[in-house]
Design a protein that fits this description.
Layout (H helix, E strand, L loop, with lengths): L4 E5 L6 H12 L8 E5 L2 H11 L4 E5 L16 H6 L4 E4 L2 H6 L4 H13 L3 E6 L3 H5 L3 H12 L5 H4 L3 E4 L13 H18 L2 H6 L1 E5 L7 H5 L6 E4 L6 H8 L6
Parallel strand pairs: 1-2, 1-8, 2-3, 3-4, 4-5, 5-6, 6-7, 7-8
Helix pairs in contact: 1-2, 1-12, 7-9
The structure holds 1,3-dihydroxyacetonephosphate.
Protein name: Triosephosphate isomerase
Main location: cytoplasm
Keywords: Cytoplasm, Gluconeogenesis, Glycolysis, Isomerase
Length: 252
């Protein structure tokens, strides 16, 4: 059984003060024990957040990292630095990083390998643009992104990763992929993993959906066989919404 994950991606939102208040609001509510709860916060808040969530059910993630341990890479943060403040997850290859910060399939691959070396769980993002969806090439694109991301990664390491399917056209637009569209690609990702590794490995890897996930569409998405959770942007910034997502099973 794959344990569901609800991961919040705060993106470039919240000062330390605002972050403290959001974390304390989330921790003030009951969270389903059946779900792995992750918040991926800005670098400036990681250290403080780490202290706030220690001993609670919330796990901490970063939104990016460099693949090297240290060196002359102005402005970058290394996996060792994330280890030091007990970060457990790291988002790799988010479409916003691919689009605005020159992230490529090659750098994504290097970062995944490095994250695994330093015992960080990579949340590897893949997804197509509206143009790619409309010209019908999106399945090839997903296959290429997944294949390149996992190049040279053993199956023992692959099972430690999490993949997030985030269609770019559904991010922050309020336009969710239908649960059938999301399931189609999450199932495709699993079949690509089966080709790259084997059926057993592909069944162990958790595949999340991301893109305008809200309390009113979470249940339908989570009912899908190949969707193991959600990577959530906007709705993770509101304690009530985020907690409702985590408690999707309880709130019948
Ligand atoms: O990019 C996302 C999560 O990484 C999705 O963002 P929204 O939930 O705001 O659409």
């Amino acid at each position: 059984m794959r344990k569901p994950i609800i991961a919040g991606n705060w993106k470039m939102n919240n000062t330390i003060k605002q972050g403290e208040s959001l974390v304390s609001d989330i921790l003030g509510k009951d969270l389903s024990r059946d779900v792995e709860v992750v918040i991926c916060v800005p670098f400036t808040f990681l250290d403080r957040a780490s202290k706030l969530v220690t001993g609670t059910q919330i796990k901490l993630g970063a939104q990016n990292m460099h693949w090297e341990e240290k060196g002359a890479y102005t402005g970058e943060i290394s996996p060792v630095m994330l280890n030091e403040i007990k970060v457990e997850y790291v988002i790799i290859g988010h479409s916003e990083r691919r689009q605005y910060f020159n992230e490529t399939d090659e750098t994504v691959n290097k970062k995944i390998k490095s994250a695994l070396t330093y015992n960080l769980t990579p949340i590897v993002c893949v997804g197509e643009s509206l143009e790619e969806r409309e010209n019908g090439k999106y399945k090839e694109l997903i296959e290429s992104q997944v294949t390149k991301a996992f190049e040279g990664i053993t199956k023992e390491d692959a099972v430690k990763t999490v993949i997030a399917y985030e269609p770019i056209w559904a991010i922050g637009t309020g336009k969710t992929a239908s649960s059938e569209q999301a399931e189609e690609i999450c199932a495709l990702i699993r079949s690509i993993l089966e080709k790259l590794y084997d059926a057993d490995t592909s069944q162990k890897i958790r595949v999340l959906y991301g893109g305008s996930v809200k309390p009113d569409n979470i249940k339908e998405l989570m009912n899908m066989e190949n969707i193991d959770g959600a990577l959530v942007g906007g709705a993770s910034l509101k304690a009530n919404d985020f907690v409702q997502l985590v408690n999707y099973k309880l709130e019948e």
